[in-house]
Amino acid sequence: MPFQPRVAILVPAPDYEEKWQPAFARKAAALTAAGLIVEQRVWAGPGDLAGYDLVLPLFAWGYQRDVAAWYALLDRLEAEALPVVNPVPVLRWNSDKAYLAELSAKGVAVVPTVEVASLDDASLTEAMAEFATDEIVIKPAISGGADGTHRIAPGAALPSDAIGQRRLVQPLMPGIITEGEYSLFFFGGQFSHAIVKRPASGDFRVQEQFGGRETMWDASDAAQALAAAALAAAPAPPVYARVDMVGDAAGRLHIMELELIEPSLFLHHAPDRGAAFGSAVYGAI
């Protein structure tokens, strides 16, 4: 019988409110087809992981709500030298969107971003002046699923959950409303597929729980090159990656974020239905 590596996929606690099981089934099917044995372990308390050939944080959903526990887990995985994909340095780097400033410094086009240590009306006004716009998006630097993300209309008050908190401030990119948000997927460094996610009418968030819908997208060479340049800045080559980008008023694409921890991979839109994903993970063992 051929060797079948055991893989632990880190998942949310049983009482987690979002339905992650259907997406888990798609990823697990791709990994099983590649010859892997897949098991679930709750990310916040996974127990002994020493017997696994690989640990995948593919469903560590909600880590942004318990940052201390998340970083403690990363420290433990690193200290025990457990085989993790994506590698722990990549997970740690990708956990905090401060990496956007690093990408910008390396010449990668990113959504213009100002980091504010303690958000108030004055710092918001200052950011609006810097961006020459009066429509702003604020988000936590450690976030997921649009948690704590707000669109601030002209003259609107700051949301109570953001006052005095560390926040990233960005201009509302026109492309998110007119065209949507693009996501490109890479496995083992190779481009797999792409989608465009469009928000519901009157919203700017593209996540499914807010009414967003996705369709396949034929990614341009420029989009693929921008994604590759952004991924090249990671501490190590990611085995799996989702790159989210959006257009400005002129249609020029900018990186919104890199999803290298627990991204939805939309494998049902992949031409091979996830075979490249499974092969990339198997090849990392």
What's a quick, concise take on this entry?
The protein has 285 residues and is an alpha+beta fold. It has helices spanning 21-33, 67-79, 88-95, 99-105, 121-131, 174-178, 221-231, 275-283; strands at 6-11, 37-42, 54-56, 114-116, 136-139, 150-152, 167-171, 181-187, 190-198, 213-216, 240-247, 253-259. The model has no long low-confidence stretch (mean pLDDT 90).
Task: Furnish the topology, listing elements before pairings.
Elements: E1 6-11, H1 21-33, E2 37-42, E3 54-56, H2 67-79, H3 88-95, H4 99-105, E4 114-116, H5 121-131, E5 136-139, E6 150-152, E7 167-171, H6 174-178, E8 181-187, E9 190-198, E10 213-216, H7 221-231, E11 240-247, E12 253-259, H8 275-283
Parallel strand pairs: 1-2, 1-3
Antiparallel strand pairs: 4-7, 5-6, 5-7, 8-9, 8-11, 9-10, 11-12
Helix pairs in contact: 1-8
